[in-house]
Amino acid sequence: MQSINEAAAEFLACKRVAVTGVSRTPKTHGSNNVYRRLRERGYEVFAVNPNTDEVEGDRCYQDLKSIPGGVQAVVIGTRPEIAEGTMRECAELGIKQVWMHRGPGAGSVSAAATSYGRQLGITVIDGGCPLMFGPTADFGHKIMRLVYAGHVPKQV
Q: Going residue by residue through the chain (156 aa), what tens digit of pLDDT does each one get?
């Protein structure tokens, strides 16, 4: 096990990141905020949504395997029942860094997906948001990290 700070730093050191669950209606989805912020901070970020070809003016991919050149890390921003399938795809593709987004509410965290990924040696951050840490954090997300401390794991 490693601390959340260590795991977050490792995750955020990856520069090619996919974000699943990015929506055509950006104001209603946290995934879009994560996608946008990573892009603004210089990450090569890829939107994944099987229901559209474009999100926020960018190309959107149907699944992780469709991303040319692959990715190093994935933010899962879908419903929890979809997370396990995404984790299986990460395992198949050799992706070793996965963050299941969770702010208020259930978020994208799935115990089955977490267990499956960890059994295969994937570092799984099961809660919180990448925007609460390191170079992607802003003041608002730092405050959210304190307010929603119960949704952010201490160890992963």
A: 899 999 999 999 999 999 999 988 766 667 898 999 999 999 999 999 999 999 989 999 999 999 999 999 999 999 999 999 999 999 999 999 999 998 666 689 999 999 999 999 999 999 989 999 987 888 887 777 766 666 677 788
Give the pTM: 0.92
Q: Are 121 and 97 within 8 A, CB to CB? A: no
Residue 7 burial by CB count (10 A; 0-12/13-18/19+): exposed, middle or buried?
Answer: buried
Query: In 3D, which of 108, 87, 91, 86 has the Cα closest to residue 34?
Result: 108
Contact 111, 118 (CB under 8 A): no
Contacts of 4 (CB under 8 A, 6+ apart): 125, 128, 133, 152, 153, 154, 155, 156
Residue 11, amino acid:
F
Residue in the structure block whose two tokens are 């948001």? 129
Nearest to 140 by CA among 64, 43, 33: 33
